[in-house]
C-alpha cells in the first residue's frame, strides 16, 4: 500500500470515527442519595427493580434477599429468606474452591453473591462469585440453581478469565423474557459472557465469551492512585443494550449485545469523589447497577468502612439519565 493510500485511509478513519470517542465522558447529575438501614455490615453487592420495588443482595448473606422500602429518604431493607441447596459443580479449580470456602467460613457469605437481576415475571437471579453459579429465586421465595452449560467456565478460563481468586463473576443481567443471561467477569482479565435459554437449561450459542480484555487504567487524578486493572463491578440490561459499572474510572458504559464493545460512557466521578462521600480506600466501591429510562441507580458496598461524613450504612445514588436518553449517540 502506498503512502498516499495510507494517508487517505487515516483521514477516512478520522472522519468516520464516532465524535464522542475522543471526548471525555459526560458527567451524570446526582438526583438523590439514600442510605440503607437493615443490611448487616453494609454489604450491598447487587440491586435490581423487581415488580414493584427495588431488591438487593449482600455478599455476606447466603440465604436472604432484601426488599428496599423506598418510601422515605432513608431506605429500609426488609429480609426475605429462602432455602439454599448445595451449589452445582461448575468446573472451577480445586484450589479456587478451597480458598473460597475458607474465606466464606472466616468472614461469612460462603456463596459470595455479587450481582442481582430480574426478569419480567419477577424472578430474581443471583450470581455466586465463589462458585461461578447462578441462583434463581421465584416470587414465592423458592430458590434453585440454573443448569448452566458445562463449557461456560472452561471457555472463560481459556480466554484468561476466572483464573484468580476473588476475581470471578461480579455482575449479572437477564432480559425481561429470560431468554438471555449475561455475566461480567471482574478483572485480570475482565469480560462479558452470554447464554441462551433452551427450555429448562442454558447453552452457549456460538460461544459464551463476548469480550475478554486485560490491561490497566488510571483512576481520576483526584484519587492520586496509580494504575489499576480494568474492572467490572456491575451489569445491567436496558433498551436492548448492556450497561457496565466500571469503578476504576468511576463510569457507566453502554455496550453492544453482540460483541460487548463499548459505545458510550458516562461519568459519576463528581458524585463518588465529593469530599464528604470519600472512603479511605484506593478502590471504587460502587457494586450495584440498575438502569431505567429516567435514571441510573448505583449501590455502594461500603464493606464496613465509614465515609468521610461519618456515614456507615450502604448508600444508593440516583443519577439522572443523560440528555437525549441512554440511547443517545453523543
Automatic annotation (TrEMBL):
SUPFAM superfamilies given in the database record: YWTD domain
Signal keyword on record: yes
Keyword Signal attributed: yes
Domain Phytase-like as annotated: residue spans: 42-189
Stretch forming the signal peptide: 1-21
Keywords: Signal
Cross-referenced Pfam families: Phytase-like
Name of the protein described by the UniProt record: Esterase-like activity of phytase family protein
Amino acid at each position: 500500500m502506498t503512502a498516499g493510500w495510507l494517508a487517505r485511509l487515516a483521514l477516512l478513519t478520522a472522519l468516520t470515527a464516532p465524535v464522542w470517542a475522543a471526548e471525555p465522558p459526560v458527567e451524570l447529575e446526582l438526583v438523590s442519595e439514600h442510605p440503607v438501614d437493615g443490611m448487616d455490615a453494609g454489604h450491598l453487592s447487587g440491586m435490581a427493580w423487581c415488580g414493584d420495588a427495588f431488591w438487593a443482595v449482600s455478599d455476606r448473606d447466603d440465604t436472604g434477599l432484601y426488599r428496599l422500602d423506598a418510601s422515605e429518604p432513608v431506605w429500609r431493607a426488609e429480609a426475605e429468606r429462602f432455602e439454599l441447596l448445595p451449589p452445582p459443580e461448575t468446573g472451577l479449580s480445586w484450589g479456587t474452591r478451597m480458598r473460597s470456602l475458607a474465606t466464606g467460613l472466616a468472614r461469612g457469605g460462603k456463596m459470595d453473591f455479587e450481582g442481582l437481576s430480574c426478569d419480567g415475571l419477577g424472578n430474581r437471579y443471583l450470581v455466586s462469585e465463589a462458585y461461578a453459579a447462578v441462583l434463581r429465586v421465584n416470587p414465592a421465595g423458592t430458590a434453585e440453581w440454573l443448569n448452566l452449560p458445562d463449557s461456560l467456565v472452561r471457555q472463560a478460563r481459556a480466554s484468561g478469565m476466572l483464573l484468580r481468586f476473588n476475581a470471578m463473576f461480579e455482575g449479572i443481567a437477564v432480559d425481561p423474557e429470560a431468554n438471555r443471561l449475561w455475566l461480567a467477569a471482574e478483572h485480570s482479565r475482565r469480560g462479558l459472557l452470554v447464554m441462551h435459554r433452551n427450555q429448562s437449561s442454558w447453552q452457549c450459542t456460538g460461544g459464551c465469551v463476548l469480550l475478554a480484555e486485560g490491561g490497566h487504567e488510571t483512576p481520576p487524578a483526584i484519587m492520586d492512585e496509580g494504575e489499576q486493572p480494568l474492572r467490572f463491578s456491575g451489569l445491567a440490561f436496558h433498551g436492548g443494550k448492556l450497561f457496565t459499572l466500571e469503578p476504576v474510572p468511576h463510569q457507566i458504559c453502554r455496550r453492544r449485545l453482540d460483541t460487548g464493545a463499548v459505545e458510550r460512557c458516562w461519568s459519576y466521578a463528581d458524585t463518588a469523589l465529593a469530599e464528604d462521600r470519600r472512603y479511605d480506600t484506593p478502590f471504587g466501591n460502587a457494586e450495584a447497577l440498575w438502569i431505567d429510562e429516567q435514571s441510573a441507580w448505583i449501590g455502594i458496598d461500603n464493606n464496613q468502612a465509614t465515609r468521610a461524613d461519618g456515614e456507615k450504612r450502604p448508600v444508593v445514588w440516583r443519577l439522572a439519565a443523560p440528555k437525549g436518553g441512554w440511547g443517545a449517540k453523543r
